[in-house]
Amino acid sequence: MTVGLRLDEAVWGLLNQALQLYGDDRRAVDHLRHQLARLEEPLRIAVVGPWRSGKSTLLNAIMGEEVAPVDGVDGSTVFTWYEDGPQPSATAYSTSHPPQELAIAKSATGMRVDLVGWRAGELRDIVVQWPTRTLRQVTLIDTPATGLDEQGRAPVMERVLRDADAVLYLTRDGRESDLRALETSRESAVGQAAAVNVVMVLSRVDETGGGRIDGLLTARQLARRQQRDPRVNALCVQVVPCSGLLGLAGRILSESDYAVLAGLARVARPELDPHLLSADRFVRGELPIRLDPGVRAALLDRLGLFGLRLATTLVRTGCDSRAKLSAELIRRSGLTELRESMARSLIDRRDTLKARSALAAVEALLRAEPVRGADELLGRVEQILAGAHEFRELRLLATLRTNRLGFDTELAAEAQRLVGGDGVGLAARLGVEHDATVQRLWEVAAEAQWRWRKRAEDPLLRLGQRRGAQVVVRSCEGMIAELAEGGR
């Protein structure tokens, strides 16, 4: 929401200015036209993280199907793209061969792509098309493990920053190496001014606290502490804990899975618990009930030891159907909160994040291949960044979640709503019914603008609070301008 020239209009004009500037450079022109085309594409969200951070499992959980498994190739350099399509298909793009359609094997819960025969380092991208509602608005990208090379660079992150519009960065505990990898995104003017495209995910939280049942609560407390860390807060808009394994198990739980878990739950806890202390005890030990070793192994692979303990406890305490257990596993996994965070911080802000990607691409080109007039255009990039209210809204949302401004709970909730934290539509921002009249919307917006302008001008408030209030005021001004133009 912008007062004056809209961000997308400003970026479109910038791209066309750059096309004129590089008109004699075919490669640069193709690159800029690609950026223009990207503005109309679904939002690209890369799932990024170090080795064994659970990227593919989380991606499957988000889609609700086991679509991500890719077997038989060194994945250290391969980006796997998941996009909507009329039917399942997979295409390989290599460094030395034309695109090649791949055979896929379907299963009851998804599919697998077999890449046996491809040499290590030969593949660059795999594009998987899969018909699912989740991919109608976004393209998800499964990336190789991140890491720093000998020069302290992060090659995977460098490509992610070029090719993706937003990032889910998975980390076990927000360790130093993860923060350094994320800090590479702030090396440009766009990265410093608009660090608004990253959601940090504390992953594999089912393993927090030694796999205890209360481990998920511990993970949520850790996420809140991480969000309050100024260094973390400068790198992402939100920190969300999530167990991809538990979320996926909940989304694809079958009736036969539930029947086995219900059978285990009927065993008294003192008798069952010793068998849930290790994978070896569960798979190879003498269980109190007869259960095929293959079924045990599959259930352990699906849920993990923590999931087995939690699921049997939930069945004992009231989850007496597959649907109830599935819903509770999903809720406890943190997947619901993650999907809501993706929707509000990333997907609802599609146009803003697409514009950010285009700004970053133009800046990178101007700095890498300067020509006459490049300095003036770089100045235009910085001018757009300085005037883009959309970026200020996202940074204020991140700050409000940490309570660093010191607003009371009710005031912080109102500010969050007005700048789009509960949805970017006018009714959602103003907290009124969806079918409210224009007059009603106008009255609420004008009243909110008046109240927040008083706070923005109150000399008794701290500077940070006044600046936060100024952002809210401008959001209200944008809503009033939109209503004046006949928007709903």
What would your notes on this structure say?
This protein is α/β, with parallel strands linked by helices and 488 residues long. Among the domains are: 154 residues, no CATH class; 78 residues, no CATH class; 77 residues. 53% of the residues lie in helices and 12% in strands. Strands 5-4-8-3-9-1-10-11-12 form a 9-stranded mixed beta sheet, with helices on both faces. The model has no long low-confidence stretch (mean pLDDT 88).
Largest sheet features = 9 strands, mixed
Tally of helical segments: 22
Quaternary class = single chain
Structural class: alpha/beta
Q: Portion of residues in helices? A: 40-55%
User: How far apart, in Å, are the first and last alpha carbons?
Assistant: 13 Å
How many whole angstroms does the radius of gyration measure? 25 Å
